[in-house]
Design brief:
This protein is 30% helix and 32% strand. By secondary structure, the protein is of the alpha+beta class. A seven-stranded mixed beta sheet has the order 1-2-3-4-5-7-6, with helices on both faces. The relative contact order is 0.16.
């Protein structure tokens, strides 16, 4: 992947019209997340392959309610955990199965480790679809015991 570049990208709405990841819900969510990035509320990271946007993720630091098993593993009594939340990770349909999702997860974890000492992050969190849950588990994320009402799964990666 010598023609692959990862960078923060400027979230212009016209960038997303042709971005198709194969899941209409995730594509719609990506448009909303791009608007949040335009407002400066989060970062949008893109993987460019041969000059074209092939994959994207959004990251936002904050506090989220965590399941009991996560709280116990962290030895925390609080209900909310400082986390780097990966709101959306999407790979364009024609670029899937090339390792770009793993690459973005690796970058998210590197960012989280860097921020861990600066702002006290304890986890990286995300919500996975039923189809993507196994992928995230293979990357070291733990799934909640049951899905949310919309069918998505809360997932957590515990930072050391």
């Amino acid at each position: 992947m010598s023609d692959t570049e990862i960078r923060l990208i400027a979230p212009r709405s016209q960038d997303w019209g042709a971005f198709e990841c194969g899941d209409a819900r995730i594509s719609a969510k990506l448009v909303r997340e791009a608007h949040r990035a335009q407002a400066g509320l989060q970062q949008l990271h893109g993987v460019m392959v041969a000059g074209d946007l092939a994959a994207v993720m959004t990251l936002r630091a904050g506090h989220l309610s965590a399941p009991v098993n996560v709280l116990m593993a962290l030895g925390m009594g609080e209900i909310e955990v400082p986390t780097l939340h990966l709101e959306v990770l999407a790979v364009r349909t024609d670029a899937q199965r090339r390792g770009l999702g793993k690459l973005l997860i690796s970058i998210a974890l590197d960012i989280a480790v860097r921020l861990q000492g600066e702002i006290g992050l304890k986890t990286v969190s995300l919500e996975a679809t039923t189809q993507s849950r196994a992928f995230y588990q293979n990357q070291g994320f733990e799934a909640a015991e049951s899905p949310w009402p919309d069918g998505s799964w809360a997932m957590w990666f515990l930072l050391n």
